Amino acid sequence: MTPTFFVLTTFALLVAVVLFSFWQDRHVTRVRPPAGHFVDTAEGKVHLITRGEGKGDKLPVVMLHGSFTNALDMDIDLAGKLAKDRQVILPDRPGHGFSDRGPDSWRVDVQVAAMREAVKKQGADRYVLCGQSYGAATALVWALAYPEDVAGLVLVAPVTHPWPYGVRWYIRMGNNPRYGWLFRRSFIALYSRYGAPRGVARALRGCKAAPYYYERSRTALSFRAAEFHWNAQDICRLYEQLVPMEGLYPKIKVPTEVVAGTHDLTVILPIHGRRLADQLPDCNLDIIDGGGHALHHSHPERCLDAIDRVDQRLEMAARSPLESALRAITAVFPQRTATK
């Protein structure tokens, strides 16, 4: 085999893979259509999934997904149960799923502004925010920027503080301005087709949703070349935004529940969850022994309990002092049961 033949063969294979990548992106988008509806905002269209609209008298919950996924990630194990007695709003963060991506949408505050506008157009003016991983960082920015809207916070495996380690190699390569495009159009395209379903199933091993998560959540959307780039951009540029944020956390006064796992190797508990709990004035930290990063799938009941605790704390705060005193007194006495 001559060197020229080898070079030409390699080039032809590379061109074929790149063309396959373009085809696959269009195919994935076509066979996995939007699960919700679109709302126009100043930052472009935001894709929203809504559940339980008009039900119950509890405050709505806005659920914010993490990296390399979309709104369906928060829908699978949580939204259906919450929707029994409240409205649940699940936006695709800008650039993810089917939401538009603006030139500055790597900034968390820009993402928050777009989603807030979309949520308000759904009629929700005050709500509880529930965010997982990167979505938890988004929720914190939201609470700092619009405290009048946010009644409470539930943060699952939250990334909250600058970390002493870097980001994974494939994220750095995916965001590289020189060769990132080729990496996304070659390696990521092939991984999405042949490796991602098994990789996701391994990451969720032991979770009820593991066998069907990849298809149900439409994770393949995250491996489209543009969306992979935006995910990598979000992660690589999050650190610089967390540096000034960590000094502002004591300003968040709303009831907050943090759910974190001791075996989370993505967002390390002592660096993020514990430090945040120490800084927030009204925060409860629920540590799951042996829990990993995808706690909303491995321990959904603990996440739902955290939302219930925020509801209870809000209800207590809304009661008058006299009502609280009467409830405390009556709780001392045993309840009579009717007899026939």
Automatic annotation (TrEMBL):
It comes from the Bacteria. SUPFAM superfamilies: alpha/beta-Hydrolases (SSF53474). Keywords: Hydrolase. The keyword Hydrolase applies. Residues 61-306 form the AB hydrolase-1 domain. GO terms for molecular function: hydrolase activity. Pfam families: Abhydrolase_6. The keyword Hydrolase applies. This is Alpha/beta fold hydrolase. It comes from Parvularcula lutaonensis.
